[in-house]
Each structure stands twice: as C-alpha cells, then as structure tokens.
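Researcher: Structure for this, please.
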Amino acid sequence: MSNATQLIHSIPVDPLTGSISVPIYQTSTFVQDAPGVHKGFDYARSNNPTRQALENVIAQLEAGASGYAFASGLAAIDAVVKLLESGDEILAVDDIYGGAFRLFTHIYAKFGIKVNYVDTTDVANVEAAITDRTKLIWLETPTNPTLKISDIKAIASVAKAKNALLCVDNTFASPALQQPILLGADIVVHSATKYLGGHSDLIAGLVVTANTDLGDKIKFIQNASGAILSPNDSWLVIRGVETLYLRVKEHSNNALKVAQYLQTHPAVDRVYYPGLTEHYNHHIAAEQQNGGFGGVVSFSLRNDTELAARKVVTNTHLFKLAESLGGVKSLVCHPATMTHKSIPSSIRQAAGIVDSLIRLSVGLECFEDLIADIEQSLDKLAAKEIVQTNINQSVWLS
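Model: Predicted structure, token format:
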C-alpha cells in the first residue's frame, strides 16, 4: 500500500457516530464514572480526542513511536530543549530558523545551556565540534532559508557515538518527502503551520519521538508546561494532512521550474534549491528526500543590497509579501529584515543569509504565472538600475 493511501485511511472514522471527519471535541473536561475512572480522558490539557487523533497520525507519518501537538512550532522546539539540564550543550546547524536562534540564545543561554553553531553540511564539522557535554544535535535539512542539506544518517551515527540526541526539524521537507527517524534521528519537530496545515490558517507545532521512553518525557513536559494545540486547530491540521502528498508533489514541481528559471535571469546571482544538480549536497537530498525537493526556493541578487531586495519583494503580485511558507498561495519574504532579523548581521552573513537574499514559498498556482510574476518584478529592478546608472554617468560627465 502506498504511503498516500495509508495516510488517508489512518485517519480514523468516529466509532460513536460513523463520522468520516474526525469530530472536534470542544470541551475543557470529561465526566468520570468514579474518581480516576474515565474513558481515557480527564482534562483537556492532558489529553483530548481530536488532538490525540492528530498525534497518532503524525507519529505514523514520521514512522515514530509517539507524537505530541503544541500551540506553535516554537512551543514544540521549547519542549525538546526542556529535555536538557544546565551545563548541557546543543550543537546546532548554523543556518538556523531565527525563532529557534532567539529561543536558544535569549531564553536558554541564561539557564546554562550553551549552543555551538556549525556548518552541518559536512559531517566532519560535526565530528570536530561535538563534545562530551553535547546532549542534543539540532538539524534543519533543508535549512531556512539557504536550504542547506545535511546527511541525517551520518550525523545520527556521530550523535549515538557520543550518547547525544539528534533532533531534526523536518518542516521544509515534510514527512511526504523525508522521514528522519528512519535515518536514525531520535526526535522530529514540525512547524505544522507550514506544509502539514497547508492553508495558512493556523499556528501549530508537532514533536515525534523514535521511542516511547523519550515520548513519555515529552508528554510530561507538554502536560506540565501546557502549551497544547486546541481541538479546532488539531482538526485543521488533520484536514490539511489528508492532502499532504498531493500538495507537496505539486509544490516541488512548481518550485523546480521556478528555480530553473531564476538561474537564467541576469539580475540573479545565486539560486538555492536542493533539486538543482549544482546545489551543494544535492546527491544527499536525492537519497534522503523521497521523490521531491520541497516548495521553497531562495535566491540572491547581483546587486547585493537590502534596497534591491526590497524592490523585488514589494513589486510581485501573485507572490504575497509575508512571513511563513507552505500554504497553497505563494509567498515571498526578505529573511534579513523579516524571519531572521533576530540573528545578528555578522552571524547571518556567515551562514549565507546576505542582504539581497529572497525566499520564495512556491504555491500551487500555475507555474507559468508564477514565473511571469517574478520576471516582471526582476525586470523592474533591472530597469531602475539602468536608469540610475545613466543618471550617475550624466552627473560624472557634467
């Protein structure tokens, strides 16, 4: 049975009514037959049938032992970091999501948890940087926003040799393309706001663990800290997951065509997309991502200035200027001033997030229309640069 078929039929039919859609149990508490005697639910922070259905689905999608749903992707990341103790160290990918960087640096550093950032695209860098204090290796692959690819299986071996946990943020690939637990990861996290939800109408986070012992620890943190996903948003994610494979396939097809077009435009300096054979570690992405490379494309401009990037992102029509990604409608953003603004400029630049870098979340519109939209915006930039050059030459000649 294919993964897509298995996914659709893993979402349960309601045993009480036969409803083919998972019911939304909008309740705060559950009546008990006697003190401590109930039907598996006592208080909605601890458990809820709608949320539980989602948690079971994501565990199956990621080939994990257990899944847990949180109020946001950052709440999910926060729960994983709470597995650590003061004095522990995290070894994290250098091209990291700005929200994770902010959480690690401004929240957990003061509690004695140190974070070392390294380019994980070469496993030798991980081997050189890991220490006996490293208790967690934090990967994004592909990364946000330069789409760096790391070898999950190789890094998992390094982690196990040092008795460290490996957590992979699988938001960009989604389980439709990549299952890190099958490659040796201990934990997978998602911003379900993105491809899993798929419609830009919710905020949610998910954690999946490879074994039940680790899952019990995450469950305790989820209940104790209370950053749970609501029943309604749990239902929205389930609804989104039903079409995940179809959507991600089309996102990937469109994104590859957009990336190939961008390579031909004279205003573009560099294109970042794992589906391009020129992309560093393309061969690894082809091995560990099953049948596609995702819907995010980033590119930098030959005019490497913030002003040039601003002109491009504010002149598109179909690509809407907004943070987030993974929805059916295409989005564009400028990471240096939007999603990654909280990261100091020197660190951003070192990770490849230059001032002119632009990130596209390629949606499900017709790819010819999307390319035309990018083209008209880039052409406007080129026209303005030509006019400005002529003005400058006129001033010099006078």
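Researcher: Any notable elements?
Model: Residues 245-397 form a domain with the Aspartate Aminotransferase, domain 1 fold (CATH 3.90.1150.10). The mean pLDDT is 94.
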